[in-house]
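Dear colleagues,

For the upcoming journal club I promised to circulate an example of a predicted protein-ligand complex. I picked one with adenosine monophosphate because it came up in last month's discussion. The inputs are reproduced below in full, followed by the predicted structure.
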Amino acid sequence: MSRPLSPGQTVGIIGGGQLGRMLAMAAARLGFRIVVLEPDPHCPAAQVANSQIVGAYDDGKALQQLAEASDVITYEFENVPVVAARAVAERTSLFPPTEALEAAQDRLTEKIFLNSTGISTAPFVSVDSDENLAQGLARFGGSGVLKTRRLGYDGKGQRVFRNALPRQAAGVHAALGGVPLILEGLVPFEREISVIAARGRDGAVVAYDAAENEHHEGILRQTLVPARIPAATARAARDATFQILEELHYVGVIAVEFFVLGNGAIVANEMAPRVHNSGHWTEAACACSQFEQHIRAVAGLPLGGTDRLADCVMQNLLGDEQDTAPQLLAEKDVVVHLYGKTESRPGRKMGHFTRLIRS
Ligand code: AMP
């Protein structure tokens, strides 16, 4: 195993959004230099990085430049093309490993992987035509969630069916772009939770307390910690997450989302091989945030403490909601984080805040 990074060495980050920005800020605090690869020259991460390579994530030349400039490379989103990631990994260390990207990029391979490790998911069928869809709907009693296998996020590229007749499948495949799809059975969940965990280069693992997530129109609205779930459910979710980390020989932070059923059982929904919106609360309520944890892991440093020092609620600031920042800043136990995005659009994540709840 190579030596840990020393202060002054460089962390390369593929992707320049708010996650990249917060990773860069955490890396800077540990004394590292940061270079960001991102096509948008005004991206949130480049504003706080030492330098930016303006280029596409799959631009061979730009990736080579990044590899030459970096002592270790990581990424802020899971849609880095696997071929590009492999090319980078041949030249310098890349964490999390490309196996994790491959497993998480495609909802079908993701579910097959999860099931192969004994972790249950919604029942699913691969859909490549309206006929497949009609058969799948018949199998799931007319109900299900149809999703694009790749490149879906925040509920985009999805369609929910309830008590649908087979003929309602007509034209749906083309309407969703004719791309490979997956139909999942509808899970009658009571809550949605996520576990943010990390594995170091030495194989050490840590996890933060499970968080409870509330979505609105596919976008995370707020995260409550601790999640209102039995201790056994929290343990099962943490253990499943650790198992995923081991199976993938993972290095870095991972987020795994689960549905919690009425009887406390968990059903994995998806995993993200990166820091995650539902882990933003850790910057306010833990000694070591998910961002610092990730940088520590990929840099080969000891992992940080994950104890939760207070209960809390994290809320995203979408669109114009960032205008409420001055009022939030007037509250004593609120930690505000804005992303430096110049253009505000309805539903766009402009920032977040975490309110500590102290008894
Ligand atoms: P996803 O993009 O997979 O995270 O899905 C977005 C949201 O849709 C989830 O947070 C759930 O609220 C809902 N959802 C996704 N898949 C299912 C499912 N199989 N059963 C019930 N609800 C689902």
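Two points we might discuss: The CA atoms of residues 269 and 297 lie 25 Å apart. DSSP finds eleven helices and 18 strands in the chain.

See you all on Thursday,
B. R.
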